């Protein structure tokens, strides 16, 4: 299989990730920090080692400001619902995934918050002047994707953070497509949610939320933390406040090895490799009659296309059945983004490239698109 759906999850991961998961299952598959015996103590140490590596990767001073999550969706819900209170206003963009839109809609329903959607242009780009104009006296949060999961278009999150902080507004980033693929300076952000299983190349079921110093969130889950067990209330301290119940120690240890791989290899090295593959693919399919490519040139390694007269799901099925190429077609859980790009009725075919893909695989994908475009 030629796997070109890395925006959903990385399929090929560094060898040490698999080895670490198995080793942790065998040696440390116990509840971390819930006992004084050696295995429990070591499991807790391994979790902290993962946080130390993630903190180094994201330029975060205090690893304890990272709370583990099941995935980006979980982390985004913790952040959005943890910040917003009754009557607040939040600003999002028209390129957001449903993992941002749906928690905001839920808060609108139950907390009577209001929200503004900043409309991007047809390439998925946001005018930062429109961001400042959208701010209201009760704006509490600006939440923005770093890179579109549909077309890869990147947002200027540091400019947006500067605007937010100028107005004493919290700024949160959805780093689902950028964590591990782009260097992220977490010290400039208030919150950011990230997955372990995409650009970070870790196991599924992992992710996290960074919360800056001095910021305490309302909780969406309460329970056992292994700390302050004498209290009936959730601890205030991080990360315990946001980490209730048994953590997935083996998967998180695997994520720690993935983070080490990225630190050793260099995020910029990974980015250059992935962007080179994506650019190589995009240049060739753009030249094909009847093929439309979406998004801007400032993007992560995602290329969204449609073939004139062809249903996107049918194209993806042909790629699978006839060429053994795995891609994602449809609306990608991001209806706002598809409305922005003009593909809400058609969807599109998304090719997303990873560090372990090869030029030979990309050549085969280019040839497959060409043949399908001639056939349909």
UniProtKB/TrEMBL annotation:
Coiled-coil stretches noted in the UniProt entry, renumbered to this chain: none
UniProt record, GO biological process: cysteine metabolic process
KW Transferase (keyword) present: yes
Leader sequence segment: none
GO-annotated molecular function: cysteine desulfurase activity; pyridoxal phosphate binding; transaminase activity
Domain Aminotransferase class V: 2-364
Record key words, sorted: Aminotransferase, Pyridoxal phosphate, Transferase
Catalytic activities: (sulfur carrier)-H + L-cysteine = (sulfur carrier)-SH + L-alanine
Cofactors demanded by this protein: pyridoxal 5'-phosphate
InterPro entries: Aminotrans_V_dom, Cys_dSase-rel_unknwn_funct, Cys_dSase_SufS, Cysteine_dSase, PyrdxlP-dep_Trfase, PyrdxlP-dep_Trfase_major, PyrdxlP-dep_Trfase_small
E.C. numbers: 2.8.1.7
Enzyme class: transferase
Transferase found in the keyword field: yes
PANTHER family: CYSTEINE DESULFURASE, ISOPENICILLIN N EPIMERASE
Family label: Belongs to the class-V pyridoxal-phosphate-dependent aminotransferase family. Csd subfamily.
Protein name in UniProt: cysteine desulfurase
Source organism of the structure: Congzhengia minquanensis
């Amino acid at each position: 299989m030629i796997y070109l759906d890395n925006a959903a999850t990385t399929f090929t991961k560094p060898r040490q990730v698999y080895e670490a998961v198995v080793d942790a299952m065998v040696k440390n598959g116990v509840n971390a920090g819930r006992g004084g015996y050696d295995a429990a103590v070591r499991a807790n140490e391994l979790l902290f080692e993962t946080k130390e590596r993630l903190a180094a990767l994201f330029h975060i001073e205090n690893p304890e400001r990272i709370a583990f999550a099941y995935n980006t969706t979980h982390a985004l819900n913790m952040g959005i619902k943890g910040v917003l209170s009754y009557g607040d206003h939040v600003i999002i963009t028209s390129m957001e995934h449903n993992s941002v839109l749906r928690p905001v809609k839920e808060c609108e329903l139950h907390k009577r918050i209001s929200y503004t959607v900043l409309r991007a242009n047809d390439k998925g780009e946001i005018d930062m002047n429109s961001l400042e104009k959208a701010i209201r006296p009760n704006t509490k949060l600006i939440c923005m994707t770093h890179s579109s999961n549909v077309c890869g278009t990147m947002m200027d999150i540091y400019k947006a953070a500067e605007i937010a902080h100028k107005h004493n507004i919290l700024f949160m980033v959805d780093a689902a497509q950028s964590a591990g693929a782009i260097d992220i300076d977490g010290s400039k952000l208030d919150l950011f949610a990230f997955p372990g299983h995409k650009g970070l190349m870790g196991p599924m079921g992992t992710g996290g939320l960074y919360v800056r110093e001095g910021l305490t969130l309302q909780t969406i889950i309460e329970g056992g933390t292994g700390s302050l067990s004498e209290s009936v209330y959730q601890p205030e301290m991080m990360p315990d406040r946001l980490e209730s119940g048994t953590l997935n120690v083996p998967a998180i240890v695997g994520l720690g090895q993935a983070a080490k791989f990225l630190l050793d290899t260099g995020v910029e090295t990974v980015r250059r490799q992935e962007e080179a593959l994506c650019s190589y693919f995009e240049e060739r399919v753009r030249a094909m009659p009847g093929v439309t490519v979406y998004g801007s040139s400032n993007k992560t390694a995602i290329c969204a296309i449609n073939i004139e007269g062809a249903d996107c799901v049918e194209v993806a099925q042909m790629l699978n059945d006839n060429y053994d190429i795995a891609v994602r077609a449809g609306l990608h859980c991001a209806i706002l983004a598809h409305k922005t790009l003009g593909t809400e009725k058609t969807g599109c075919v998304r090719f997303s490239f990873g560090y372990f893909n090869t030029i030979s695989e990309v050549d085969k994908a280019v040839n497959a698109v060409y043949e399908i475009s001639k056939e349909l």
